[in-house]
Amino acid sequence: MEQKGAVQKIAVTVWGHRVSPVFDSARTLLIAELVNGHLGRMSTLELDPENPFQLMQLLRAQNIAVLICGAVSQDSAIMLENAEFEVIPFIAGDVRTVLETLIQDNPEWTEFIMPGCNRKICCRGKIRRGSELTSHLPEDHQNGKPDRLRVNAAGENSGGSE
Amino acid sequence: MKKKKAALPANATEIILESISDGVFTVDHEWRITSFNRAAEEITGTPRREAIGRFCWEVFRSNMCEGDCVLRRTMKEGTTHVSTSTYIINSEKRRVPISISTAPLKNEQGDILGGVETFRDNTVVEELRRELRSSFQQGDMVSRSPLMKKIFTVLPRIAESDSTVLIEGETGTGKEILAKALHDLSPRRVKPFVAINCGALPDTLLESELFGYKAGAFTNAVKDKPGYFAIADGGTILLDEVGEISPAFQVKLLRVLEEREFQPLGGVDRQRTDVRIIAATNRDLAELLDQGEFRQDLFYRINIVRLQLPPLRERKEDIPLLTERFIDKMNRLRGKAVTGIDEEAMWLLMRHDYPGNIRELENIIEHAFILCSRGKVGVSHLPAYLLTAIPRPAPLREAHDLSEKEVLLEALRRNDYNRLAAARELGIHKSTLFRKIRKFKIALPAVDGRSTRSNSP
User: Labelling B423: which of A66, A86, B179, B398 has CA 20 to 30 A away?
Assistant: First the structure.
């Protein structure tokens, strides 16, 4: 995480106690507060999978720092990037464990990356406009770190794996 | 010389599974994948070594996993399910349209060991279907109606022209979708499209939404806020319900249209705007003009190109097409497996007048989806008001049988009940005629045109 010491909000699309397998059809959003680098209060909100704009508004209104989700389609990925959210996609597993991993200094993601995604573009986040995040983060991603997609105000990629 | 029969290798099943183009995987009771064939690897983009032992939803990634999993139903009920359409997200973020069939996996004793799922990549089928549909599709609109086809024909040229367009049509006819199609076909397509309902906002709010405001313009205006005209710069703005705008605001809007400039609330300088304006209304603007409720100069300014969307009751031939489209949409969004609509339910839909137009039809299908998860939408899934408004006729099958019986009787009468002659006249085989006579329980006289018959043996 970038700003330890401050309160940040992490959103995860969930299915019961797991990360929802498909972002595009997720029905529940869990919002976890991160206070001074520790997990704080958690709450859930219902989502309407038919209305992706509702989710965008919700993420913005809640001032979400990072979104963790399962498989995400290209269209949804573009929408999230255009809205300038930092996204950790193609994650599977128990939500609590995922969140606890996220707050570690050097998180090890191997066990959470969805099968078939650890050597392909889906987790490295091949970004539009000709550039790839791989130029920023290939080595540690291949060592089990998923990609974080972030687009700055100028519309250029600025994110990468920590 | 004896031919030697080639023995199947011991791993024949494995070889067959590897050579077919349908993806196949099996799961145990814990939902962990126990086998995964070559086609499954290709369609999902996941190598077998990574898939085996993982939860099926982590590998398969279908929109149905979370809601209405077909494999779960199969394992629960012990029944097979054939050909449910859905999509998966492969490892390259692509939505792959697929059809799924599931069956319980049993051992020789009949014990359920898990489930087997086969799936087929329907990408090519979907592309062909889309191509076929494109002949009566424009943007998000579909129609077979001649009235709509006229609009579809002129739409690309209107879109190119950059003129202001007035769209008229009853509520729910798809004015916003038409405006979006105009934008998407225009050179402005890469720039924003924004829509605002002018009827829903009072003047001051409408002004701040459209033109924006400067910090300090009013209480709580702590920083500048751009309006829709600024946000949509280079793109298109839809002013919906333009007939509801007050006379005072009509003047301000006219000025923007004429001078291509606007002034944010609390601002001093005027700002240039390069926005194409599309106006839409469900009111008769000419009538409002006569009543003095709409300014003549504004009317002429927006009425450069006028498109009139017909109500659904005037394009009923589109109801089956739109119904199919809404069913596809709902299946996708809700993760359901509804396959269509039965004849009687469709008859009811065709008989309705749709004061709410396409939106009402969509709501009816949405209502049906609450009660129907798979198979065909039937009459019992439709809202009650559709049933009470119309006197119920005999179902289509009954109507068909009744008319068929009449035709048979007429032919028999004309031929003095000579079955062979009647069958010849009807162009069917005599045995078919006998079968139908039995089916419809047609009483035959003792005497026919060919022979004499006694009722008693």
Answer: B398
